[in-house]
């Protein structure tokens, strides 16, 4: 995998540090550096960029201004890099991949790059599948049975170490603001990704959002308890009970038919 990267920051030293840290990854190619939002917009229109490391407070259009002017769908995978913590929630609301604070910690950057590569690989596989489907439909040929790929592992920060969690071992996922808590047996891990994004990233035939604050792995479900027309609960094999909304019940039904 070769990722074309753009670094945007009005501080030369900040750009230099990030450039130095990224230089250690052979899959990263820094193709542009910008000092302000106006330069970022021009660069994105001129060339293909896979990953954007974007400062929030810059002259002539800041990071959020760039997304607003171009539209989130026209901006590559974005990682906000800033000296301020209070923008974190807004950053994840515009679907940023991650949020790094200055000075950037090398280990946190490695974690971010792992998430980026996994996300882009999944997105690329899905796009390829859709392209093949379109070609077969135009030729009136039955499409191949190739399915989109979903991550088998998630990288999580565990104290002073990073660890891989096998997705099949995850029993359920709990929303925690712009983080999510992965429950794996007696252990739990915080991951810097909102539950809304995990609901899209993980295999929908296995991981079902049963409530706005919970995703369940249906392989770990023991029974479903209906409590009226609009409410209910899901009971896991370990006896843990999770609230289930009406939409969550519909999501479970759809997954059972898949």
Commentary on this structure:
This protein is of the alpha/beta class and 258 residues long. It folds into two domains: 3-112, Response regulator (Rossmann fold, 3-Layer(aba) Sandwich); 153-257, OB fold (Dihydrolipoamide Acetyltransferase, E2P) (Beta Barrel). Helix content is 34%, strand content 31%. It is built from seven helices and 15 strands. The chain has helices spanning 12-22, 37-46, 63-70, 88-93, 106-138, 195-201, 246-257; strands spanning 3-8, 28-34, 51-55, 77-82, 98-101, 153-158, 161-166, 172-176, 179-184, 187-191, 207-211, 214-217, 221-226, 232-236, 241-244. It has a five-stranded parallel sheet. The protein has a five-stranded antiparallel sheet with strand order 10-9-8-12-11. β13 and β14 (232-236) form a beta hairpin. α2 (37-46) packs across α3 (63-70). The longest helix has 33 residues, at 106-138. The chain is elongated and about 60 Å long. The mean pLDDT is 82.
